[in-house]
Fold this sequence. Notes:
Elements: H1 11-19, E1 25-29, H2 35-39, E2 48-50, H3 54-62, E3 75-78, H4 89-99, E4 108-110, H5 112-120, E5 124-128, E6 137-140
Helix pairs in contact: 3-4
Amino acid sequence: xxxxxxxxxxxxxxxxxxxxxxxxxxxxxxxxxxxxxxxxxxxxxxxxxxxxxxxxxxxxxxxxxxxxxxxxxxxxxxxxxxxxxxxxxxxxxxxxxxxxxxxxxxxxxxxxxxxxxxxxxxxxxxxxxxxxxxxxxxxxxxxxxxxx
Length: 148
């Protein structure tokens, strides 16, 4: 264990988060997402896992990773097929974790198959233990400024 770091962030996840650069994408996926197959096509190339609910994983990741403030798609959510404007509770929990960082903008919606394509371009995929449908999120890494 480390002081000040959420204990659900394992060494492999921390390594990947630290290695990511500004603008790199991270996918947080539910248990039904084809995580292993897609992870093999990412920059990291290996699937990462945190077997916890999506809201907990998002909160832990966002405790150490800043979001990109320079782009509109700083965070995205997989849209529900046939109902793209509905934000299910699993996605609202992530939106709440984002809001807790001080970011007021809503996540952008991403069509299901476009989300799969985007995920293949990501730096890494973390498969969570989330079993609710549409628990698939993209987070784009931001920057940490210099000390004043």
